[in-house]
Amino acid sequence: MNLINRELSWLSFNERVLQEAMDPTVPLTERIRFLGIYSNNLDEFFRVRVANLKRIIEVKNEKVQGFKGTAEDLYIEIRKVVLKQQQLFENAYEQIKAEFQKDNIHFIDESACTTLELKELDDFFHEQLKHAIFPILLDKKRPLPKLRDYSIYLGVKIVSKTKVRYALIQIPTEYSRFFILRKGEQTNVILIDDIIRLYLNEIFAVYQAEQIEAYTFKFTRDAELDLDDDLSLSFFEKIEKSLKQRKKGQPVRFVYDTQMPNDLLLFLLQQLNLKKGVNTIPGGRYHNFKDFIRFPDFGNTSYRFQPQIPSPHPDFMNCKSLISKINTKDVLLHFPYQQFDHVVDLLREASLDAKVKEIKINIYRVAKNSEVMNALLACIFNGKQVTVIFELQARFDEENNLWWSNRLKEYGANVIYGLQNLKVHSKLLQIKRSSEGKISYITYIGTGNFNEATAGIYTDLGLLTADKEISLEVSRVFGMLENNLERHAFRHLLVSPFNTRRKLMALIEREIKFAKAKKPAHIRLKFNNLTDIKMIDKLYAASKAGVKIELIIRGICCLKPGVKGLSDNITAISIVDRYLEHARFFIFSNNGKPEYFISSADWMERNLDQRVEVGTILKDPAIQQQIDLIFEYQLKGSVKARSISADYKNAYSKRNLPPFHAQRELYEHYKRLSEEVAQ
């Protein structure tokens, strides 16, 4: 079996996130944030991947790729891994709390409050929190109300003289999950969950309980959108309808406090139509650690990563017109080391440029209060023709995309809702200018979304170019999206689902031929996920032929590196650090005439065959050097790089080298470049 299972590889990636929470060199609040990221990742994994696996089990419980057993066996293995990671998670949480305690910051529950603290909590509860609590009594005669899988609940057991009752309380989201109590030099943190526990007798006073207890639980629903074939509905309406159905999706995971009484647990499982041991994950007293992403720093800057302000791109410093500069040379932006503001500034300039007649962009995910969208509105107000291709099926961002698409359409944009059976995942922006009958373009091709919020934490690349050959081909891509996949030939672009796979295969084959001719042959690849079997087999063939292959893969990797006779010449690392590694680029040595590409596509079947993805060749020698530098920095990183292997050990690589922190060094590199220009 020459593949690593996709689901287990993803869990291995999430364990690397957990490693950051356990790393004592990471600041304390950031460590607890990584617990939140791990928890949020796992929620999405169950909503999407495990839900899909359960559907496979129901239809046909057959063997799965990269795993010795059936889909059901894999489901059992996933549960084992998650339970093992749950223990690591709990240990990390306890370690972090112990570190905070050294600084006189204590995590307390309702049983540890002093009289003064109880008075403060009493005021908070009666003046604010109480008004957001709406308990629901549970009864076998009444169906369980539709619960939200983004929420956490307290399952309440009320024992009175005559009866045992069960109830639910949803933890309110209007308030921070963390309530800070200060007394002198000491700071105490109590969770909202425990404040509610303090007042259970008051909340349920009508029952005169002899005993009353509350235990946290959460559950996860299948998040797949079911787009029905009702021809009377527009695609927009189908998305809206499916979003409502998602909230009623089948539960796939139930996480609960192990101290929960068995009768209450069985009652809840029965109401949710779940079985104990199959769908259940026993855990600690608290859940929904995704809330810990917003854990406070108590005003102590040492608890957070030191600020790293994005640098301006040297070519745009002291520059009156970005468009004029791009007309003279290509510019490659590297976020978050460099400013995403340049993209917004470009749109702002386009809105005022009399030569700009038309702007086209395709959108996958944008920020809620998007500067990019507001800049597009300014373009509309200034008389530019704006076309926006919106991907409504961007999972978990559908509602935000619906809202922005409505707003843009209301003000006069030409809004196109992509394609029903083919997600538009490319990251394209094109500004069309006309002067004295001549048409020119400013084109942006990126690896990440037009989202200033994620551009501050995701590493991505964006090419700005006026190159005629590239721009005309991007114009054809937009034409294709506007005219229902009208086919075109692409020489300079990698365009899925049309030529990306074929072109990548040809590029690998060229390296194989060089290797067989005893010439230097080398491939360097960086992306998020590698799951496509045909591409993996081609990389194995290249390795056998003697091609040296270096992979930097953040997430899922189904290829087994370093296997004798199969992948001896392949090494693979994963970097998990302060920023989420999201950039995708490829380098093929081409016998001393290397070719460089960036792309929006990972090497997954869906990205190569079932989505519209766009990559481009990078022609400028200075930009090629920049790509080489990024890869070299990350490859020699000895602080946050882990070796990818079939045993899922996530061993740190090159720890015997002098410490080289790749992300930090890249930040300093870009900072130096801008400072040199400023001087």
Describe the structure.
The chain has 679 residues and is an alpha/beta fold. It has four domains: 103 residues, Polyphosphate kinase N-terminal domain (Methane Monooxygenase Hydroxylase, Chain G, domain 1, Up-down Bundle); 160 residues, polyphosphate kinase like; 175 residues, 2-Layer Sandwich (Endonuclease, Chain A), CATH 3.30.870; 185 residues, Endonuclease Chain A (Endonuclease, Chain A, 2-Layer Sandwich), CATH 3.30.870. The protein is 37% helix and 22% strand. The strands form four sheets. Strands 14, 18, 19, 20, 21, 23, 24, 25 and 26 form a nine-stranded mixed sheet that branches. Strands 10, 11, 12, 13, 15, 16, 17 and 22 form an eight-stranded mixed sheet that branches. Helix 10 packs parallel to helix 11, helix 14 packs parallel to helix 15 and helix 17 runs antiparallel to helix 18. The radius of gyration is 27 Å and the shape is globular.
